[in-house]
């Protein structure tokens, strides 16, 4: 148990089953991901060889029911996300893309045949999935979607581009969102071996380097009529999937914050300046105390959102509060930790600079700070300012 856990231990507030999930995820993250993550970050490589192991212990789509999935609580999923992101945001992102976005879309909106075909294999990590919503010109405004789906005899034909799509170059299947001939956004299950589908990895990232984001080109991709997600009509469908991912982020970034805080506490005890450890200086203790307060508040907020979600009471506005606050505070904690570490804080001897870089991406995806501010503002005023 770390000093941080002694001061505030989340185990005091979760069930035995939820704690078991957390400890299982922590062991996996610390023994399988942590030893290779710095080199993977340097090599700009997602450790894809670990994805089947994630499937083996059941973390993909773990809060979904049936189809061989575990039906765990939303809090349990949040704790797994926290432990994964305590090692690296990129690996937690893979968990989210597969389990919350790709599997979530098929689970919520797919036909029974689509669910039976894909969910068991994806849950086991035997099939990898992606979620194709964002476009190069669209960013946070998917209503500008240019990807089209037209009926042509007994087929749907898709054309367009997607960008910043996780896992697509290694996926066997994905969900592509496109506008039909009436301008309605629909979802389609797209096997990646379909002619006309091409995914290319985005290589020049300075953040999320141990992750996999891609650009997709769809050129006359022909799909059978039953490739459409029958229950998905309009932008509300992909937004429901995005909210699942945003919920996981509220937990995950507190893992990154914990990692940075632990590094700062340990360094404050070992680094000496002016004849004594810097941890004995009032200004350092004040910084550490403030960092811990924001970590604890963020974790309690995530727990509260998880309990609301499990009770079926979590709203879009509340999810935006969690995503906006916790990412913002995690970035602040990482920045303060880097300062306490001094010059060494920018090296790979510590995980802090890697977390700082990754968190800038987390701040951007699944809705920027500004988008979530406007969501919260709409909830407060009843007026949309988008």
Structure explained in plain terms:
One of its GO terms (molecular function) is fatty-acyl-CoA binding. This is Acyl-CoA dehydrogenase family protein. The chain is α+β, with helices and mostly antiparallel strands and 386 residues long. The chain has three domains: 3-123, Acyl-CoA dehydrogenase/oxidase, N-terminal domain (Butyryl-Coa Dehydrogenase, subunit A, domain 1, Orthogonal Bundle); 130-227, Butyryl-CoA Dehydrogenase, subunit A, domain 2; 236-381, Butyryl-CoA Dehydrogenase, subunit A, domain 3. The chain is 52% helix and 15% strand. It has eleven helices and nine strands. The chain has helices at residues 3-7, 16-43, 51-56, 74-87, 89-109, 112-123, 236-270, 282-310, 316-341, 352-364, 369-381, and strands spanning 129-132, 148-152, 155-166, 173-179, 185-191, 197-201, 213-224, 272-273, 276-277. The strands form three sheets. A four-stranded antiparallel β-sheet has the order 2-3-7-6, covered by helices on one side. A hairpin with a 5-residue loop joins strand 4 (173-179) and strand 5. Helix 4 packs across helix 7 (236-270) and helix 8 packs antiparallel against helix 9 (316-341). The longest helix is centred in the middle third of the chain and has 35 residues, at 236-270. The relative contact order is 0.12.
